[in-house]
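Q&A log
Question type: sequence-to-structure
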Amino acid sequence: MSKPLGKPDRIVVALGGNALGNNPVEQIEAVSNTAHALLGLIEQGNEIIITHGNGPQVGMIQNAFAAAHDTIGTPEMPLPECGAMSQGYIGYHLQQGIGREMHKRYKRWHAATVVTQIECDPDDPAFKNPTKPIGPFYTEEQAKEFMAEDPSKVFVEDSGRGWRRVVASPDPKKIVEADSILNLLDNEFIVIACGGGGIPVVRDYENKGCYKGVPAVIDKDLGGELLAEDCDADVLFLLTAVEHVAINFGKPNQEELEDLTADEAERLADEGQFGKGSMEPKVRAAIKFARSRKGRTCIIGALDKAAETMAGLSGTRIHE
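Response status: OK
Response body:
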């Protein structure tokens, strides 16, 4: 996978969880289209690492176990284990989709999924202020009963739709499997890692400092940014449903942006120009990556135009 002159060597490609559909049938179809775009990037001479969201998928897994627990007494499944299941399930489909696309193009590259843990600081303030909703909706009575049974669980009312559990969203500090990912890259594997932002873990000092999972959710864009830094990537490529970052989104004076410095992007983000739960996390991750080392660029663009975006024909570039 050698690179042409002037092309970036190593790219972290981040796929949104919603871009992969809401069920296995939709996901297989979406992955087929995604694989086509990803192979196009490799054929441009780039080495890629893939990460992805897992919101719909981990929600499906959680809801299935919750329903099974309520109806037939299946043991409850902790959130870290649900995250691990989603990484394996999505990675499996990506490996198969990439494999099919490689056969079409007579390529002999290999793809591998790394179930990835992300170390967090146990003293992160987020653990004292859980805000990330997960799992199914319950009545107020059910939620209060759950909290009485297990005081470590927090439930809140969610936009008039019922009560949901909320968990912390701490900052990612370290990729536990970073060396494994780098070894695979050095042996020319297409690596799929840090799915859903990674599985949050902390040091367990009662067990010789080994890791233990915690019920939390890492922001997938921050997880992808950390992966890009740790893998010494030149480009962080955040693929979304839109071609460009825009200001005044949805208004008559909407303006699509093609090129921003990190300072310009930060000013617009501070002004509230980007959606809190959608575009703003991507822009914040882009700013962090662009400032992490001279020459690094984050590109935000549409999944179906990945190759064109890398060629500079679409997308928004954020750099120092």
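Response note: Confidence is low (pLDDT under 50) at residues 1-8.
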